[in-house]
Amino acid sequence: MVTATETPGAHGEDSPRESSPYVELDRATWAMLASETESPLTSDEVARLRGIGDQLDLAEIRDVYLPLSRLLSLRVRAATALHHAQQEFLHGLTPPRTPFVIGLAGSVAVGKSTAARVLQQMLARWPEHPNVALVTTDGFLYPNAELVKRGLLERKGFPESYDRKALMRFVIDIKSGKDEVEAPVYSHLVYDVRQDQKVVVKKPDIVIVEGLNVLQPARVRGDGRVGLGLSDFFDFSIYVDANTNHIREWYVDRFLRLRETAFRDPDSYFAKYAALSHDSAVDEARRIWDTINGPNLAQNVLPTRSRATLVLRKSADHSVDWVRLRKI
Ligand SMILES: Nc1ncnc2c1ncn2[C@@H]1O[C@H](COP(=O)(O)OP(=O)(O)O)[C@@H](O)[C@H]1O
Ligand SMILES: CC(C)(COP(=O)(O)O)[C@@H](O)C(=O)NCCC(=O)O
Questions:
Q1: Strand bridging mode 236-241 / 310-314
Q2: What gap in Å lies between CA 205 and CA 76, rounded to an integer?
Q3: Which of 92, 134, 222, 242 has its CA 20 to 30 A from that of 276?
Q4: Is 51 marked as a binding-site residue?
Q5: How far is the CA of 112 from the centre of ligand 1 (A)?
């Protein structure tokens, strides 16, 4: 028997206490949901998936990601059955197959990319859906030259810094079952979109779309009409969450580590920071956080959390403390 908090309770703030659409489970209760399933990843594989500063070990895989991959696999199977039933009803008016699309949102430096890579690997081990693609939305940022033209270079990551039409087209093409869909690629090293590179998604069973703003609702147009938003095409969505003060510390710590590694590359946009003293580097990282990533989190990212099907809440050491699931 699994016992859980019926309302968002101490951690939630997104809905009234009665008839909450959410159920909140502490880590131990969530872990029990997959207690009889064997973890498909070895400790070497887990080490390869770990991002800078992330706390990811076999216990995290077993307690947090195994129940999630079971739940997702169950939902993929149900979605496939529903698609087939509807296709029969519509006499083939719908595409013969449509991938299961997972949106994965959260702040800069919260560990979205590690969570997405882990899920990709774990979901690919299920024989029913071996082809799991991962696409990050940073490829859809406008190139720096265009951001400069629009006066948006200091707003990288804000909703308006993306080519939202192209991102929407990409997800619609994926959901329409196109055999091959291309996405642009962003390089953190050069801090810009790579004009010479593309990622090709071929006949995927599952696509994970990871990015800051994937849960943003559709915009109201000038004439008052509301179109479709990206998340209207998601079969499931995940928000990676943590206390904002912790995320700010993780961002600064990561900046200091990158200063010892990636920033040393002469091609790095941040090469100018490699020579900074420790204290000046901390000041610079805090400045970037306090002027760009922090305000974007508060104004655009965090307000979308209540839209997620699942919230993974991390504690100060990066391990997931509790999980909140939309139960209806
Ligand atoms: N300036 C940088 N140079 C090299 N790699 C970076 C830089 N900034 C971020 N990264 C890497 O890019 C990935 C995505 O980072 P980010 O968008 O902050 O999302 P998250 O930390 O939630 O995965 C991470 O693996 C991070 O380590
Ligand atoms: C590239 C990002 C906007 C993240 O994009 P995402 O993949 O979430 O769409 C972000 O990592 C970033 O570079 N922000 C700008 C400020 C900074 O350098 O941290």
A1: parallel
A2: 9
A3: 242
A4: no
A5: 9
pLDDT at residue number 3: 58
Which two tokens mark 241? 């969450």
Residues 119-136 pLDDT 10s: 999 999 888 888 999 999
CB 137 within 8 A of CB 65: no
Give, for ligand 1, the residue of 117, 162, 188, 312 to mutate: max count of ligand atoms closer than 8 Å to Cβ.
Answer: 188
Answer whether 52 contacts ligand 1 (Cβ < 6 A). Answer: yes
Of all protein residues, whose CA lies closest to atom 15 belonging to ligand 2? 156
CATH code for the part of the protein at 40-214+228-322: 3.40.50.300
- Render pLDDT for 89-100 as a digit per residue (tens, 0 to 9): 998 888 888 999
Residue 110, annotated ligand binder?
A: yes
- Interatomic CA distance for residues 173 and 182, integer angstroms: 10
* Helices of type H across 90-151: 112-124, 144-149
Q: 271 CB under 6 A from ligand 1?
A: no
Ligand 2 site, residue 211, Cβ cutoff 6 A: yes
Banded pLDDT at 105 (limits 50, 70, 90): very high
Residue nearest to atom 1 of ligand 2 (CA): 138
Return the C-alpha torsion angle 253, 254, 259, 265, nearest 10. Answer: 180
Which atom of ligand 2 is the closest one to the Cα of 186?
A: 1
* DSSP string over 136-187: EGGGGBPPHHHHHHTT-GGGTTSGGGB-HHHHHHHHHHHHTT-SEEEEEEEE
SS3 assignment, position 322: strand
Domain extents for the chain? 1-32, 40-214+228-322
